[in-house]
Write a structure and sequence with these properties.
The structure is a homodimer. Chain A is of the alpha+beta class. The first copy, chain A, is built from seven helices and five strands. Helices cover 38% and strands 15% of the residues of chain A. Chain A has a four-stranded antiparallel sheet with strand order 1-2-4-3, with helices on both faces. In chain A, α3 runs antiparallel to α6 (165-172). The radius of gyration of chain A is 19 Å and the shape is globular.
Chain lengths: 221, 221
């Protein structure tokens, strides 16, 4: 790599950042169940809180869940949603679906429910008049920061979207004015796979960069 | 920091990742206008393409814009939206708003319009039955990857949300079925400020971590 003048990052430091990005995985199995120390979890959450946010609104809130009874309720909500989801598939696709591990709610010692205030007072409305959805996007940027920080701490993160958000709202007493963005399973793992689970399982292939980049205008493929 | 067993990252490498996260800025001024070499831009876009995506759907598309005529049209769209936005403020707040630099569309040599297929065929619907918005969220994760990779390359990124997305759709021939997620200004910068612009400008303060983390259930503050 050529030197990145003025970045303040050495070649080795830049390589570390690219490696974190490239070796981050959506982890659903392989949690080893070890406790996540408070200081480690705090570093990872602090990384989330450093994300960009529209108007500097920081519209996110992270609910850290260790309580087993709560996680059992979430797990039951997953089972219900997953049974409905599976009903959309048939034949070979259903068999492949049934073999996928899609959550680690009880196996990961820490779960994090991420919520967002879509209409925050903070930020004084800056940047949200034409694109109000940017508050939500800020919260997702925070999740990606968390995910990368977790990776370098040796913590796997799995984002579970097969849950009816209304169930999470009830379990964690989340007011109606807040949007439930994500439910994450977090914990130490045996290791990080070289490739995404869904690629290894034959569920989907990987689109190369050339297929997702256009120049000057959108090109239909 | 204690060693992160099994992460495969040394303390120095972990520190580099945290430093990228902490020193990333939303850059609107300070672009120096130098060309961004193709290989550098490709590394940054490849980092985006490595983001997590629901069902491994990779629903994102990046339109790289260097053409000055297009950027002038986008700049005009910003000016129109910004005039409306400014009308929402009065008095001291309006004065502060008017002093903010909110875009670098012409100053940054590269702009990137990021769009998303909210209902991708790829991924076979996995994870999108209960939370279909996760396709959009995948695209935002990709943007945050891009932003961090840009940081270590010495490239500033500014996310401009004060534009009517319909104008971007017309300028870049984006079909109706795709959602316009972000418009980014990208280029080498004189440097990265120690603090967010909006903090330095007195627009907003920073919420400490303790204010955005709850335990076990949501807590009204």
């Amino acid at each position: 790599m050529r030197p990145a003048t003025g970045s303040g990052f050495s070649a080795a430091e830049r390589a570390a950042v690219y490696r974190a990005i490239g070796s981050r995985r959506d982890v659903r199995a392989d949690f080893i169940g070890d406790t996540v120390p408070d200081d480690v979890l705090e570093r990872v959450l602090a990384a989330a809180n450093l994300a960009p946010s529209v108007g500097l609104s920081q519209p996110w809130r992270f609910i850290v869940v260790r309580d087993l009874a709560s996680r059992r309720r979430v797990r039951a909500a997953f089972e219900a949603a997953n049974a409905s989801a599976a009903a959309a598939y048939t034949g070979e696709e259903l068999e492949r679906y049934a073999r996928l591990t899609l959550q680690g709610i009880l196996e990961a010692p820490v779960n994090i429910c991420v919520v967002c205030d879509d209409d925050p007072q903070r930020g004084h409305g800056l940047g949200r008049q034409t694109m109000p959805e940017t508050a939500r996007y800020s919260t997702v940027c925070a999740i990606q920061n968390l995910w990368l920080a977790a990776r370098v701490e040796g913590l796997g993160v799995g984002w579970v979207s097969i849950i009816d958000p209304r169930e999470l709202r009830a379990i964690f007493a989340i007011p109606e004015r807040l949007t439930i963005v994500a439910y994450l399973c977090v914990g130490y793992v045996r290791g990080f796979a070289d490739e995404p689970d869904l690629l290894r399982a034959g569920w989907e292939t990987v689109l190369p960069l050339s297929e997702v980049v256009d120049h000057e205008r959108y090109t239909e493929r």
